[in-house]
Design goal:
- The chain is α/β, with parallel strands linked by helices.
- The chain has a single domain, classed as Ribonuclease Z/Hydroxyacylglutathione hydrolase-like (Metallo-beta-lactamase, Chain A, 4-Layer Sandwich), CATH 3.60.15.10.
- It is built from 7 helices and 14 strands.
- The strands form 3 sheets. Strands 1-2-3-4-5-6 form a 6-stranded mixed beta sheet, with helices on one face. A 6-stranded mixed beta sheet has the order 7-8-9-10-13-14.
- A hairpin with a 2-residue loop joins strand 7 and strand 8.
- Helix 1 crosses helix 3.
Length: about 210
């Protein structure tokens, strides 16, 4: 079994958690929201196999094209969030940031898809609610939850494309995971499925 590594970088104006998953000779980056040069320096000389976007909001995607060009990597996301990539300038302007960002995904990923990293597998879980194309990624007992699930909270549904009923269905899906699964959210501290089970159950019981 190859050795596996996980590194978290907190990047950008909204303090987004960017994750680097790596085996001995290749890596995957999840949500490169900002600070592309810093992310590159942490990847080092290994092959960047993929850049995976958990959803299309600017604070999770802004450095994706820079990494793609620098490392000849592929950008993966769920197709239901492609519309958000077309509004990145507007999204940024709402935070007083004037910046042109263009991102072209190379592959669309769906619920149940798997991506190999070394001897391990990253499994895609489609979890709409925060956005239509939000996904979580399950890898080696760790869930990278984007803005779907946080420590003590769940993702906002009051932004364009948000849907509370979809979020409830996504919570039901995540309740199928074991309590021991570690949750690495898009913002803030880590948690576990077990620690969030009560909250998720409360959300779903009336729907």
């Amino acid at each position: 079994m190859m050795s596996l590594m996980l590194r978290k970088l907190v990047v950008g104006p909204l303090k987004t958690n960017c994750y680097i998953l790596a085996s001995s000779d290749e890596a995957v980056v999840i949500d490169p929201g900002w600070e592309g040069e810093r992310i590159l320096s942490k990847i080092g000389n290994v092959k960047l196999k993929a850049i995976i976007l958990t959803h299309g909001h600017f604070d999770h995607v802004t450095a994706a094209s820079m990494l793609k060009e620098a490392k000849n990597a592929r950008i993966l996301m769920n197709k239901r969030d492609i519309y958000l990539l077309k509004s990145l300038r507007y999204q940024l302007s709402r935070f007083g940031i004037e910046k042109d960002v263009e991102i072209e995904p190379d592959e669309f990923i769906e619920d149940g898809d798997e991506l190999k990293l070394g001897d391990s597998l990253i499994t895609v879980i489609h979890t709409p609610g925060h956005t239509p194309g939000s996904i979580c990624l399950l890898w080696e007992g760790k869930l990278f939850s984007g803005d779907t699930l946080f420590k003590g909270a769940f993702g906002r549904v009051d932004l364009p494309g948000g849907n509370y009923n979809d979020l409830v269905a996504s919570m039901r899906k995540l309740l199928d995971l074991s309590d021991e699964v570690l949750v690495f959210p898009g913002h803030g501290d880590e948690t576990t499925i077990g620690a969030e089970r009560g909250m998720m159950t409360e959300i779903t019981k009336n729907y």
